[in-house]
Design brief:
4-stranded antiparallel β-sheet; 5 helices
């Protein structure tokens, strides 16, 4: 047990998360010491930036859809070392809360109960919407997806371009079946155009690439 009770006092004030004598290892949801919900430590440092967050998103897109020919603008096409390091720090953060993101990305716009929308310069026509728990646990991020902010949904197969179309829009246009796994980060949808068998890949609900199907 610590010689001083200051860790416990700081814990009660939510200045720190783990006092050192909680039962079991640190957990982001429940503190066994005070039998209450607690915030994990550390919260995202204020040295993180929106640019680093966007690069972390691009890393996710490349990981989930490695065949997508992404061509982001500078500096994301050849990011400097400090931005790569920061993206890694974003990816390492666990149990993010809306308050954490707001401190770096700015205040979100409400998209409805437990839905929080952030604007990102790389995707000016879309919001990145984060879904949270509406419970005493707090606004921990559960899922995220792109939703349209401006512009019109696709009106022609010619509009099926990367970073221009959302999965629900393509579903409505082509008459695809309703998505049975709406919370999945990554979707590959087979379809046909003029008798050609195609595949469309979406990450966070945003189109990444379209290709001819590799299936026989």
């Amino acid at each position: 047990m610590p010689a001083s009770d200051e860790p416990y006092r700081r814990h009660e004030r939510r200045e720190i998360y783990f006092t050192g004598s909680c039962m079991g290892g640190p957990e982001p949801w429940w503190c066994w010491s005070c039998e209450a919900y607690a915030d994990p430590e550390p919260r995202p440092p204020r040295t993180l930036t929106k640019e680093g967050y966007q690069l972390a998103l691009l890393d996710d897109m490349r990981r989930l859809a490695p065949e997508a020919p992404l061509s982001p603008p500078a500096p994301y096409d050849d990011p400097p070392a400090h931005l790569l390091e920061e993206a890694g720090r974003w990816n390492a953060l666990e149990s993010q809360k809306i308050a954490d993101l707001s401190a770096i990305l700015g205040d979100p716009v409400s998209g409805g109960p437990s839905r929080h929308r952030f604007s990102l310069p790389l995707w000016p026509d879309f919001w990145l919407e984060h879904t949270t728990m509406d419970t005493p646990i707090g606004q921990y991020v559960l899922n995220r997806r792109f939703v349209r902010r401006s512009g019109e949904p696709m009106r022609s197969p010619d509009h099926l371009r990367p970073w221009s179309v959302l999965l629900p829009e393509a579903q409505a246009f082509f008459g695809w079946e309703e998505n049975r796994m709406p919370n999945a980060y990554w979707h590959v949808v087979p379809f046909q155009i003029e008798g050609r068998r195609m595949e469309a890949c979406f990450v966070y609900g945003l189109l990444q690439h379209v290709s001819e199907s590799s299936e026989d």
